């Protein structure tokens, strides 16, 4: 079985950026990706210099096309289901859902994160008219009548204050959670309405929200908005490889290196929090520098 220099799990901006750097360093690598990247539901990605407004799938296709210039890089549309360290061979072994096995000296985890919503119907509108990142989508929602859907008071305060830069026509929905008087007074001064009644239904079509119906019977017109999801890693690879993870679920790293020798982390996988395309790509580039330097020092 052929031994690879590095296996990259995940072909989002972090994994693809790392693959490009490693390919240019003449390292033999394989990228594994199952197409379940978080931004696949997004109509366009914003804020990446020279690629502002690009569709995420087009961004991915351009990156993969560029990688074809480097013969030491291969891409496989397989789902990795197991990763483990073969201590006797000092290699990592991965197994895919197609029952294929691959060996590599090093592993880069760039599988990203996924969202969960307290109100499941949000998924129908997420990435189209409901968003989580004002820096990514605030410009397109400027001056529109927007909803802020958040349950934890600290998250709601942060998001509302931030979105206020793009639109002053805001209404906050807490889905049954109460807010302190101080928050109510602060928002009242900015003429921001608050509804603490539970949400009954979201109305709209083709992913475009039109109104929010409450259990009280109120139906409030809105044409877009921002929400606060919770995030999770879609796999347990970091745990399986004994990477140290802190109390906030962040994988401890230094220059992309995890605490497990030979295991590297890039992008949203590290923080279990959302990141922009540009920041994730930068993380992949940084991790690739560490991988290449470690290989260089081991072999020189």
From TrEMBL:
The keyword ATP-binding does not apply. Residues 5-284 form the FAD/NAD(P)-binding domain. InterPro entries: FAD/NAD-bd_sf (IPR036188), FAD/NAD-binding_dom (IPR023753), Ferredoxin-NADP_redctase_2 (IPR050097). Pfam families: Pyr_redox_2 (PF07992). Its cofactor is FAD. It comes from the Bacteria. Transmembrane segments: none annotated. Keywords: Flavoprotein, Oxidoreductase. SUPFAM superfamilies: FAD/NAD(P)-binding domain. Homodimer. This is NAD(P)/FAD-dependent oxidoreductase. It comes from Bacillus spongiae.
């Amino acid at each position: 079985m052929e031994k690879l220099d590095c296996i990259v799990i995940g072909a989002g901006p972090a994994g693809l950026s790392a693959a490009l750097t490693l390919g240019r360093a003449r390292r033999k690598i394989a990228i594994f990706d199952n197409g379940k990247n978080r931004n696949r539901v997004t109509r366009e990605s914003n804020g990446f210099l020279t690629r502002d407004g690009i569709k995420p799938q087009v961004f991915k296709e351009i990156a993969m096309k560029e990688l074809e210039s480097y013969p030491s890089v291969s891409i496989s549309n397989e789902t990795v289901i197991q990763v483990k360290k073969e201590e006797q061979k000092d290699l990592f072994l991965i197994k895919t859902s197609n029952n294929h096995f691959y060996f590599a000296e090093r592993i880069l985890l760039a599988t990203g994160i996924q969202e969960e919503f307290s109100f499941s119907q949000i998924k129908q509108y997420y990435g189209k008219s409901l968003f989580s990142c004002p820096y990514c989508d605030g410009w397109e929602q400027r001056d529109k009548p927007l909803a802020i859907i958040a349950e934890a008071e600290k998250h709601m305060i942060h998001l509302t204050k931030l979105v206020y830069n793009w639109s002053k026509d805001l209404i906050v929905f807490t889905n049954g959670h109460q807010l302190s008087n101080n928050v109510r007074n602060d928002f009242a001064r900015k003429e921001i309405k608050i509804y603490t009644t539970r949400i009954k239904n979201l109305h709209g079509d083709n992913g475009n929200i039109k109104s929010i119906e409450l259990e009280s019977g109120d139906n409030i017109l809105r044409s877009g908005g921002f929400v606060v999801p919770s995030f999770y890693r879609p796999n347990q690879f970091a745990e399986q490889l004994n990477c140290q993870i802190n109390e906030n679920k962040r994988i401890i790293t230094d220059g992309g290196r995890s605490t497990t020798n030979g295991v590297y982390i890039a992008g949203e996988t590290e923080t279990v929090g959302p990141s922009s395309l540009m920041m994730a790509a930068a993380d992949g580039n940084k991790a690739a520098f560490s991988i290449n330097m470690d290989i260089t020092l081991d072999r020189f």
